[in-house]
User: Which sequence fits this backbone?
């Protein structure tokens, strides 16, 4: 797909103390954007390192930088970025990954070719230098499971399905389904996946579309204690109920 012929996209990135990897991530994203229409919305969550200086060194017209006046957490920061986004297709981006060439156009085309609202892809987990694969999720996404909505929801409850925000994109109208994020959630990506499955508006893309760095600061790979896991399951149940309320409203 010619990036200059497609509709514009928005990329939403939440940043907090991301100086180590953020430049490589931004560079990988900008290579896939159309300077004239696309927007890379970066919301800095009151970083204390040189993240802001790195971002402000760019003169690319697609970059829009917003600064939180205090630290509000990555979920609320992503929520803010999504609210700001205005283009027909919205991508989420972590601060420390690397987009694989062709990711944007591939996901853009697939989600627009269907009546779905959310597309989720697979990814390759790599070490801090992004050279070696260090982790493979047990339950990768399969395209033929896209419409197995109950099965997908059960796997969300079990915590063994690869729904990661960094590997998601959605149509603008999906914002009406997911915003505002419920105050109790501790994973905005699982909230989005739950809503999309409840509404039968999700599609899986089997391709790896990014290199996902695994390191000590990754929110998505933090090991949890038993009582934390049980509490998370309770939150999933609340998300399930609320997603149905939104569907019927």
Assistant:
């Amino acid at each position: 797909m010619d990036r200059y012929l497609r509709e514009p996209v928005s990329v939403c990135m939440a940043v907090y103390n991301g100086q180590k990897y953020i430049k490589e991530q931004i560079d990988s994203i900008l290579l896939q954007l159309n300077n004239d229409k696309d927007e890379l919305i970066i919301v800095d969550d009151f970083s204390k390192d040189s993240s802001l200086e790195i971002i402000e060194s760019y003169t690319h017209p697609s970059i829009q930088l917003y600064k939180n006046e205090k630290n509000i957490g990555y979920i609320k920061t992503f929520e803010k970025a999504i609210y700001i986004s205005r283009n027909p297709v919205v991508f989420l981006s972590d601060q420390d990954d690397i987009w694989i060439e062709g990711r944007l156009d591939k996901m853009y085309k697939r989600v627009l070719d269907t009546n779905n609202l959310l597309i989720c892809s697979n990814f390759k987990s790599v070490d801090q230098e992004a050279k070696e694969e260090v982790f493979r999720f047990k339950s990768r996404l399969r395209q033929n499971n896209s419409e197995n909505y109950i099965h997908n929801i059960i796997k969300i409850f079990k915590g063994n399905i690869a729904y990661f925000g960094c590997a998601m994109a959605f149509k603008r109208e999906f914002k009406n389904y997911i915003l505002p994020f419920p105050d109790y959630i501790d994973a905005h990506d699982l909230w989005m996946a739950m809503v999309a499955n409840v509404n039968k508006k999700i599609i899986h893309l089997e391709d790896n579309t990014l290199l996902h760095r695994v390191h000590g600061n990754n929110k998505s790979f933090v090991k949890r204690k038993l009582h934390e896991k049980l509490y998370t399951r309770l939150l999933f149940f609340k998300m399930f109920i609320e997603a149905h309320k939104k569907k019927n409203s």
In short: The chain has a mean pLDDT of 92. The longest helix spans residues 226-248. The helical segments are 22-30, 51-56, 74-84, 103-112, 149-158, 175-178, 188-198, 226-248.
